[in-house]
Specification:
about 290 residues, six-stranded antiparallel sheet, seven-stranded antiparallel sheet
């Protein structure tokens, strides 16, 4: 017959052994989950060469607390800039002709880091799982990691959204980045916001400075180090549809999801390369993995 006292004693014994070994367990060395030596090589010489002969074909500003869509042909560059003041942006990317393929922040984070910079790639979701954009230049690469453990260009957060805001504050706010991206995509596609919303996904938080607190491990933000003239630039590895929101938090140094913060426009530019400069470029193809 099963003896519950025996089970309890055994459980207590295991707990005591675990506590005795706690320091040893915590001292276990970390193991990088994905060894990335076999990932596609970042050929900075190629990207710089193509960029040097590319011509600007699109320039526009995104107003504060709003979002806009834009398209980038494969083999072109696009730049997001703070030309009017420090401002955080939330970026979504889709394969232009197949919205089912879109930026996958989680896998990008696993393959690269919690915050991205020059040489990192933005990967798409499964079953495609390929680089759809490469970061080729970043004026904030100097920031690195500060004493709070924060970095810039975040793929650990999602985007401010009206649902979380309502749950926490009991009020409706209609200019969260999620709302802005939904409206912009709906306008671009000519569909309702309800139809567009499922396509909006976790973002690259451009210019946002974030981390996790060292004591409670909670997600935090601090004022972006971006100043007038700062930028991040990407190479489109496939035809892209982008959507960018100028976050209602401004530089996100104090608040978000409100009309309190000082906000600025974000500038988007597209630079198109001549065909001959891309003659040796091979676009990344979707994953060749096939289930049995």
């Amino acid at each position: 017959m099963h003896d519950p006292k025996s089970t309890l004693c055994s459980a207590n014994g295991n707990l005591i052994n675990t506590l005795d070994n706690a320091a040893q367990l915590r001292a276990s060395p970390p193991v990088i989950c994905y060894q990335t030596d076999s990932l596609p090589f970042f050929d900075i010489t190629f990207y710089k060469s193509v960029r040097s002969v590319s011509v600007r074909t699109l320039l526009f500003d995104i107003p504060p607390r709003q979002a806009r869509c834009f398209t980038v042909p494969a083999g072109s560059f696009f730049r997001i800039s703070c030309l009017h003041g420090s401002q955080v942006g939330d970026l979504n990317l889709w394969q232009r002709d197949n919205l089912s393929e879109r930026f996958f922040s989680g896998k990008t984070r696993q393959l690269h880091a919690t915050h991205l910079t020059t040489g990192d790639r933005l990967w798409s979701n499964m079953p495609y799982l390929r680089p759809i954009a490469t970061i080729t230049d970043d004026s904030l690469q100097w920031y690195g990691w500060d004493d709070d453990g924060a970095g810039v260009h975040d793929v650990i957060g999602t985007r401010c959204d009206p649902y979380t805001h309502h749950n926490l504050h009991g009020e409706n706010y209609h200019h969260c980045c999620h709302s802005n991206l939904t409206k912009a995509l709906a306008d671009k596609l000519g569909v309702s916001q309800r139809e567009a919303e499922p396509h909006v996904h976790d973002v690259l938080n451009v210019f946002m400075c974030t981390g996790f607190t060292k004591d409670t491990h909670q997600y935090f933000m601090k004022a972006s180090p971006a100043r007038k003239g700062d930028y991040i630039e990407f190479f489109a590895e496939t035809d892209l549809l982008g959507a960018l929101s100028a976050c209602p938090g401004g530089d996100c140094g104090a608040t978000h999801s409100s009309d309190v913060a000082e906000c600025h426009p974000l500038t988007v530019e597209v630079f198109t390369a001549p065909a001959e400069s891309l003659k040796d470029w091979t676009p990344f193809q979707p994953s060749e993995y096939r289930p049995d």
